[in-house]
Amino acid sequence: MIGTIFNVGMILIGCTIGTLFKKGIKPAYHEILLQALGLAATLIGINAVVQRMPQSKYPVLFIVSLAVGGLIGQALDLQGHFDKLVGRFSGGNLAEGLATAILLYCIGSLSILGPFEAALKHDYTFLFTNGMLDGITSIVLASTFGFGIAAAAGVVLAWQGSLYVLALILQGALSTAMLNEVTIVGGILIFGSGLGLLNIKKINTLNLLPALIIPPIVISVMQLF
């Protein structure tokens, strides 16, 4: 778990630095930082999909995952509950920023593959690299949305910790194809988050989060036959 602890620490440090910067940054600079973050998120999302799509053995699975996952998320109203929860503690657009932070921190290839590499091979390279990237991202996010972004660090700890334990439990049951499909869906969600930051299209990405669990379920069932 040393890699995950490093990752969480870098997020907290980045949020602290970004919050200090926020006090001296004019609104116009906040806006340009938000646009920069939106462009970065869309590019990260596109890159994840472009890299992984050619390796996909189930080319339509991401469509099914988004559709089914979206229906589940809408029925549970994840976005609505999340917005209300964040609204109790802070005003403004922190909810949007926090949702983007969670997606950027948790759904990237390094954040997904890192815990598995650490658990199965004791290789922390992915997590250390991811920690450095998340630290830089945190500076930009916190300078725009405030220190509330640090709440995402707890989500990262739970997310990567769960993947680490899952890798230890399942080991042989995990497949590259499964991780590949999850990364494709995750890349699409990050892309959608970037569109929202750029005010191109507001997408309830949190309602689409259940889409991430569909590929493992479908592939696991298909492997039984």
From TrEMBL:
Task: Identify the keywords attached in UniProt to this record, alphabetized.
Answer: Membrane, Transmembrane, Transmembrane helix
Under InterPro entries, the record lists: DUF554
What Pfam families does this protein map onto? DUF554 (PF04474)
Q: Which residues cross the membrane?
A: 6-25, 32-50, 56-76, 97-116, 136-159, 166-191, 203-222
Question: Which domain of life does the protein's organism represent?
Answer: Bacteria
The name under which this protein is listed is Membrane protein
Q: What is the organism of origin for this protein? A: Lactiplantibacillus fabifermentans T30PCM01
Taxonomic lineage from the root: Bacteria, Bacillati, Bacillota, Bacilli, Lactobacillales
